[in-house]
């Protein structure tokens, strides 16, 4: 929306929404509301298999369907004039593949903003006992990073991992996330203190910091 406010023409390729509940949001479906406008921004939604309960198998199907659905949907975007591709790099990293296809056809640069580090996040979140899947994913990740013209990272701790995949450090830049103004002011009593027992053992996950 901020890009649009600054008079840029924006086209978004994303999935049919199914997060966080694991099922399509009301009014959406595999081939329902695949194209819409939001504050003057063209949004193309790729058909996917919902993540359901979030089991490893269901999540894998969700990620694979997003890859295939995004490649299919990207073909409808090619008719547009495109100057640059900006990839919002949350999971799965394979969202970079349709971006590479568009890049090769339109001969334009890609900026990839890495917010989830792959394959490390798969190993951790999936609690994998074997390193077979990370070994399979590693060359895919290298391929995607290789074709990015600029890589932004949300944490400086990502830099060594990405550089270790053969990426020139000169094209990696620290670009942290920020909080939108809609979250201000923060009402601590409402969101935190009132629902946490004072004598409980507390563990907080704060995402990528540092």
TrEMBL record:
Taken from the record, one Pfam family name reads Glyco_transf_4
The record lists the membrane-crossing segments as 59-78, 84-102
Q: Which UniProt keywords apply?
A: Membrane, Transmembrane, Transmembrane helix
Q: Where is the Glycosyltransferase subfamily 4-like N-terminal domain?
A: 2-174
- Write down what this protein is called: Glycosyltransferase subfamily 4-like N-terminal domain-containing protein
Question: Origin organism of this chain?
Answer: marine metagenome
